[in-house]
Amino acid sequence: MTRLTHNLLLLPVFLVLFSVSFVNAEITADNNPLEKYLQGLDTFRSGFEQILYNEYGEELEKSVGVVYLKQPGKFHWAYWEPFSQFLISNGVTLWIYDEDLEQVIISNISESIEDTPASILTGDVDLNDHYVFIDGGESDGINWMELTPKDIQSQYRAINLGFRGDELVSMQLFDNLENKTQINFLDSKRNVTLEYSLFDFMPPEGVDIIDGRQ
Fold this sequence. Notes:
Number of strands: 12
Strand content: over 45%
Order of helices and strands: HHEEEEEEHEEEEEE
Low-confidence stretches: 21-25, 114-125
Largest sheet: 12 strands, mixed
Strand order of the largest sheet: 7-8-9-10-11-1-2-3-4-5-6-12
Structural class: mainly beta
Radius of gyration: 17 Å
CATH superfamily: Lipoprotein localisation LolA/LolB/LppX
Helix content: 10-25%
């Protein structure tokens, strides 16, 4: 899996978790940290550290960057190291700009996330229809919540969310090849003012453009 494909698959999961709220029979509204966090959420800004591990727990790659989110469905996900890459959407169009490759891929956001957990962003869908929610307990001061997909063909077998108090501080994504992606959020802020220009993109002159929109 290329770094571009891997990063693109992670993004929809992040958006799913910040785009809908739910009440689950196993984790009630009273003890659901994700639902509490989502209440009143309009914008989100955070630095992040992303680490990919193989099935043996060996580190394969570490990335750092920043993410901006604005409801509904707008995002700007920027990887700074080890490669410069940007995933940007205004809620309708998705731009993936790989600075090193001097290439921009343009697509409709609904088509780009088809057959992934993010497909629920295209309609008003209850997460309870797609996931089982389990209390993962506490470890090193972080309270964990596990989301297990009900679809046996899902690209992820589990998604763990880590909360410290009322703040989301970490995500762990386990794919079907037993790889784990750990995303640690750094200095995150909610409901800060974000410029609309963050969620639009004009390809630089001279780059290759692959436009897959119909």
